[in-house]
Design goal:
The protein is built from 9 helices and no strands. It is mainly alpha-helical and 165 residues long. The chain has 2 domains: 52 residues, Orthogonal Bundle (434 Repressor (Amino-terminal Domain)), CATH 1.10.260.40; 69 residues, 434 Repressor (Amino-terminal Domain). Helix 1 crosses helix 3. The longest helix is centred in the last third of the chain and has 15 residues.
Length: 165
């Protein structure tokens, strides 16, 4: 065919213009699954590679993307690094802020309690906002934890440099 056009050898055709997005592309993602799908499609990678980047199995990632299951708390640090932001709404209540910070570090209630020197039940009650009386000592323990979790150079932020994106 090249010879019929008077051309010899290989040649490159360059197409210009935007690459069309798939019909199911989430323009304004609302759910975690839509955020994951948008990030994956923006990178132009298959689910298998996105799952590898997060550290889960391809079937698990598929179910997250479809909204069939919620990720385990241990996957949240990698998910947040993969997305580059936290897709969850900013919690208004103090307990919600504790839970969001704990999940961002991939900690269970028991692991956070151990780290802070509290009972696991205490963490659960404060996260749900069901404490009968707000003890100031415990409030300060959580306040210091939240300040440290949000500080530049925190453990969550330092880990973000090692994940392939």
């Amino acid at each position: 065919m090249n010879e019929s056009l008077g051309l010899r050898g290989p040649f490159v055709i360059r197409l210009r213009g935007p690459i069309p997005r798939p019909a199911a592309y989430p323009e304004t993602p609302k759910t975690l699954g839509e955020h994951l799908k948008k990030a994956r499609l923006d990178r132009g990678i298959p689910q298998r590679e996105a799952a590898w980047a997060i550290g889960c199995g391809p079937l698990t990632f598929f179910h997250w993307e479809k909204g069939r299951v919620a990720p385990d708390v241990r996957f949240w640090p990698a998910i947040l690094r993969y997305l580059g932001h936290d897709p969850r709404p900013e919690p208004a209540a103090f307990g919600g802020r504790i839970r969001a910070a704990r999940e961002a570090e991939g900690l269970s209630e028991r692991e956070l309690a151990r780290r802070l020197g509290l009972a696991a039940g205490t963490v659960a009650v404060w996260e749900r906002g069901e404490m009968g009386r707000a003890y100031s000592r415990i409030w300060w323990v959580f306040e210091r934890y939240l300040a440290a979790a949000q500080a530049p150079g925190s453990a969550v932020e330092e880990e973000s440099n090692g994940l392939p994106v």
